[in-house]
Amino acid sequence: MSILLEKLIINYPYSIAVVLFIIGALTVLTRSSLFKKLLGINIMETAVFLIFIAAGNIRGGTEPILSEGNPGTVYINPLPSALMLTGIVVSVSVTAFALALIIRLHRTYGTTDANCIAQMRKEVIDR
Amino acid sequence: MISSITTNLPVFVVIAPLFVAFILTTFARRIRLVEGFVIFIEVLGLTGAGILAVNVFIKNIPIIYQMGGWSAPWGIELKIGNLSAFFLLVVAFVSVPVSLFAVNNLSDEVGGKERVTRFYVLYLLLGGAMAGMAVTNDLFNVFVLVEVATLSCCGLVSSRNRPQAAEAAFTYLIMATLGSTLVLGGIGFIYIITGHLNMGFAYEELNRIWQNSPHVVWMAFSFMLVGFGVKSALFPLHIWLPDAHSAAPSPASAILSGVAVKGYLICLLKILYRVFGHTLMQEFAVHRILVLAGTVAIIAGSILALTQVELKRRLAFSTVAQVGYIILGMGLVNIKGLTGTLFYLASHAVIKSTLFLAAGAIIAATGKKNINELAGIGRKMPITMAAFTIGSLGLTGIPLFSGFIGKWNLILGSLESGNIIPIAVIIVGSVLCAAYLFPIVRVAYFEPAPEEDWKDPGFTQKIALIMLASAVVILGIIPGPFLELAERAAAELLMLR
Questions:
Q1: CB distance A41–B170 less than 8 Å?
Q2: Residues B75-105: pLDDT tens digits?
Q3: A8-20: average pLDDT
Q4: How far apart are the C-alpha atoms of B236 and B385, rounded to whole Å?
Q5: Average pLDDT of span B420-434
Q6: Are B15 and B128 spatial neighbours (Cβ–Cβ below 8 Å)?
Q7: Does A45 contact B169 at a Cβ distance shorter than 8 Å?
Q8: For the domain that residue A100 is a member of, what is the CATH number?
Q9: CA spacing 20 to 30 A to A78: which of A24, B324, B361, B429?
Q10: Most B-contacting residue of A4, A83, A115 (CB-CB within 10 A), to test interface
């Protein structure tokens, strides 16, 4: 038990990522507000970004910019950071598009609650 | 000039649609020009895909293209083997008739002429991303292309000028982003334990060291399966699909149901067989999960389709069932089964596009959405309904139509793997498919028509329907080289060569 706890504490970025991921997934699946769903998606994506960044990090390492005079320096792996830059761009565009859709839904239905929208649409169909 | 085009053809088939998509916006108001340009690019894409496929087919060695001259594992690699050539052909072929169908036919559905160009921009982006999924050999590229495809799919759904389209697009966007986040997580786990993003190198490393961290491999498997399962609408993760595919404009429904879903399935196939490999799949019993998920999807999707009264919704639920066949075949892990899966994937792409385009033409002409209101439409709109009937026969799996060959190979594959249940499910699925499609045909031909003036759609729309319907028949009668290509792709996936 104590070994497990120790592992969780030493690898704290991964533990935090798991917690964040669960928070995000729960928010997406259980909240009916469209904004909260969007926030949940963003938290989930951040958790995955954190996993990548943590995988590329080396404790005590520096940014991989070659300079003269310190041949023994340990560099972190820059590739995951570069990949996550792309990931962040993707996540921003998803957020922008989702916000645009929320504005359009708000104009039509006057609310941003998924349950209210579903109910209003059902009433329209019943009539 | 010519030689530089042919050597760079693998990257041109991906880049050209993406590039043209953004050029289109500069002359957005001249719709005729935009439409002509889009069709020109699609035909060019088909030619390019044809050249690549013939090249691969004759030489029987994969074309490897290194982006920017950097060799793997440092650079990004495009690899056109038999599988990529096969899927490129499917994408390029289906795109041509769908864009022909959209000519002069969109402004009602997207709400105004100035919005038509936006539709085409998204359409080309989707085409480029699909071509990219076919040729890429790099895991992170898969994620980026999946996201490009997802965003353009959502855009296509929301381009319909109805409030429910925005709602469907939002649900789709949330679910699909959930899926791609899971995919990214899966890619992350593979990268963490192997240190490679190139599929070939990741495969070698993974099969060497997987015993050290079986739990991470498990996580990667499950993230990939659920992620791509959401995106390709595997039952019970399909909840976004019926709304999204029935709310979209008709050409968009055709391309979404016909091709977009298949792109994610091809990515899943590539990752399962080329990154994990079939030995690892069998070690972790993933193939059993795939067969189980497939059988459940076939039965549940068919029953759900049977309960729908709206034409487009019934077709959308039918897609859920058909995805089941493809997933089932992936889990059979033998040449016959994989050949069947690939051929079925191609035949469903063609058939579902035919059905959605015919349904779109019917709805546009009559304004009726429900199946029981379509009495006598077969006599008023003969060409449309003939295409719809050919599509229905093909999807059910009647011999001489393309669906039959796919299902036949799937059945042979299940026999080879010694599993009887999939065979029963495939047959039951076919019967259910007949049960939800043939009533439409019966109502259309054998019930008295009302006194209304319904007509076949315009000239280009007719050409599009005839092209797709004849492809269904031709693939069914002389599958020849295409089936051969699928067989070689299956052998390639199982690494038998």
A1: no
A2: 888 888 888 999 999 999 999 998 888 887 7
A3: 89
A4: 32
A5: 90
A6: yes
A7: no
A8: 1.10.287.3510
A9: A24
A10: A83
The CA angle B23-B29-B35, to the nearest 5 degrees, is 65
Across the interface, whether the CB atoms of B170 and A80 are under 8 A apart is answered no
User: Residue A72 — pLDDT band, cuts 50, 70, 90?
Assistant: low
Q: Once rounded to an integer, what is the mean pLDDT over residues B373-395?
A: 85
Phi and psi, residue B80, nearest 5°:
-105, 95
Please indicate whether, in this complex, the C-beta atoms of A105 and B166 are within 8 angstroms of each other: yes
What is the per-residue pLDDT across B23-77, written as a single tens digit (0 to 9) for each?
888 887 788 888 888 888 888 888 888 888 888 888 888 888 888 878 877 888 8
Structure-block tokens of residue B238: 């399909």
How many CB pairs below 8 A link A and B? 68
Confidence (pTM): 0.91
**Subunit contact A105:B185, Cβ cutoff 8 A:** no
Structure tokens at B221: 């498997």
Query: Cα dist. A76→B115, B191, B280 in Å?
Result: 48, 15, 31
Res. A55: pLDDT tops 80? yes
Q: Which residues of A touch B143 (CB under 8 A)?
A: 87
**Cα separations in angstroms, A30 against A37, A98, A106, A114, B352:** 8, 18, 20, 11, 34
The 10 Å Cβ neighbour count of residue B338 is 29
Per cent of chain B over pLDDT 90 is 23
| pLDDT tens per residue across span B185-210 | 999 999 989 888 888 888 888 888 88
Confidence tier at B264 by pLDDT (50, 70, 90):
very high
Tell me how far the alpha carbon of residue B122 is from its chain's centroid. Answer: 16
Could B188 and A93 be called an inter-chain contact, meaning their C-beta atoms sit closer than 8 Å?
Answer: no
And the tokens for B420? 């009887």
CA separation (Å) from A120 to A61, A124, B58, B166, B240? 56, 6, 59, 14, 19
Query: Domain spans of chain B?
Result: 292-497
The answer to whether residue B108 scores a pLDDT higher than 80 is no
The per-residue pLDDT for A127 is 55
CB contact under 8 A, A55 and B154: no
Does the pLDDT value for residue A36 go beyond 60? yes
How many residues are recorded in chain B? 497
Model ipTM value: 0.91
Per the structure, the count of domains in chain A is: 1
Distance CA B489, CA B341 (A): 11
**What are the distances in angstroms from CA B407 to CA A53, B63, B236, B316, B395?**
45, 30, 23, 20, 10
Report whether B44 contacts B16 (CB < 8 A): yes
Among all residues of chain B, which has the CA nearest to that of A98?
B170
Judge whether residue B497 has pLDDT over 80.
no
Q: Which of B198, B192, B188 is nearest to B227 (CA)?
A: B188
Identify the residue among A101, A106, A109, A112 best suited for mutation to test binding to B, counting B beta carbons within 10 A and taking the highest.
A101
